[in-house]
Amino acid sequence: MRQHNTCNNSAASADHPFHPLSFELQRCAPQSKQRMHELWAQMAGTPHLPDQAVVFSEWPIVASQRLQDKLIERAQALCQILQPQLQAQAVQNSGWTQGVAADVLTIDYAIICDGDAWDIRLVEFQAFTSLLTMGYRLHQVHSQLWPQLADCPPWQGAKSEQSWLQSSRSWLAGGESPALLEYQAWQRGTLFDLHATSLLWNMPIIEPHQIEIDAKGRLFSKQHGVRQQHDKILNRLILSELQESDQFSHRLLTTQLNWHSHPAWYFLVHKGLSAELKIPFEPKNVKANQWHDLNLPAHDLVAKNIFSCGGKDLKIGPSSKELDELSSAGQGDQWIVQPRYRPYPVMMTSTGTPVFAEARLIVQLQENQQTRIAMQILRMYCAEQASASFFQGREGEGASILHRPPNE
Q1: Which residues contact 102 (CB under 8 A, 6 or more apart)?
Q2: Fewer beta carbons below 10 Å: N end or C end of the chain?
Q3: Exposed, middle or buried: residue 318 (CB in 10 Å: 0-12, 13-18, 19+)?
């Protein structure tokens, strides 16, 4: 996690993590946050963005070839080491009769200081799809504002938007009658992405209280007096958030349908596994009750609750007393501890304030095939953390997409 001291960098450096096209477009065709906000809402067809233009960065960002190569190499290595945890048997072992292998992994990497140079560091991962549609619609906005970026899509494999849409359709929303499942969807800060996803893939958003499961295991939803059967679920539901999670989980166990991001995977593959595996290129992580094994002072560490999200339950530079208290309170195995890092100042604002970045890769997992990066999102942040809950509309701050290098 970030510290307050930074290392030196230059936007003109030949070894910058971003391609020079990033700075050229920012200089020649500057945009405002409000313009990004309005265009994205128009492209996505949704009114559910926050009132203030704080979500999107106004800066176009293109990865250098070195950054792109690092992200691909690290993501492939992580997926390889996680392979035993991604098998269908893991779902069956957790009580589900229908075993289905994990089909997605969302991975966050921070761009960090490595001496006076830069590198990337794994932040966390989960078997959950997050912000894929947001990234696609943002690519359309960028292609309109900066036509040079139309040929630098933030995904692998698919050569055009149409081929990306076709391959993603079967992956996320295959079947005759798919639906997007979430709990309290209309009250969430992520509603802008949820609703955009619903519109793009022509699937209703359904909630647990709207679901019926018949004796044959068929799943139906009932909305506005209309009953509809669904054969594929794009899942965004975390079962533990439900007040009656055990009862609802028992009902879901009887269903006979296809899942994208099966609800069991949230608990089976998550950042806590980084304390149990030796992940290539990454420093050692441990559970909180083993933090002394890192041989680092407490203030050089970060502690994270295994199932936290959005920057919650995070202790940056804790005291040794705080770490020891986690163990004494019986929470030592619910937290992981990692070495801190210094974030690399990838950009500077007009007033000289450093801006940092985390890349989010949404990876399509396919049996007997190499992993494919389906989307690259970049979160730019000026202070605190990269989570959207900390965005305040500052210059450069917000979500962008990480375009692949031109002519790659």
Answers
A1: 85, 86, 127, 262, 265, 268, 269, 365
A2: C
A3: buried
Q: What is the DSSP letter of 175?
A: S
Range of the domain at 74: 20-369+389-403
The C-alpha atoms of residue 247 and residue 234 are separated, in whole angstroms, by 21
Q: Which two tokens stand for residue 231?
A: 């054969």
Number of domains in the chain: 1
Q: Which residues contact 31 (CB under 8 A, 6 or more apart)?
A: 58, 145
- pLDDT for 380 beyond 70: yes
Tens-digit pLDDT profile for residues 69-114:
999 999 999 999 999 999 999 998 888 877 789 999 999 999 999 9
**Residues 117-159: tens digit of each pLDDT:** 999 999 999 999 999 999 999 999 999 999 999 999 999 988 8
Please give the Cα distance from 386 to 380 (Å, whole number).
7
Query: How far apart, in whole angstroms, are the C-alpha atoms of residue 176 and residue 293?
Result: 52
**Domain-embedded: residue 7:** no
Q: Are 178 and 203 in contact (CB under 8 A)?
A: yes
- 98 lies in some domain: yes
The helix or strand, by DSSP H or E, that contains position 316, with its residue range, turns out to be strand 314-316
Query: pLDDT higher for 108 or 7?
Result: 108
Paired sense of beta strands 205-206 and 354-364, if any: unpaired
12 part of a folded domain: no
**6 close to 341: Cβ distance less than 8 angstroms:** no
Q: In angstroms, rounded to a whole number, what is the distance separating the alpha carbons of residues 237 and 240?
A: 9
d(CA 86, CA 127): 9
Residue 68 covered by a domain: yes
Give the C-alpha separation, 21 to 207, whole Å.
Answer: 43
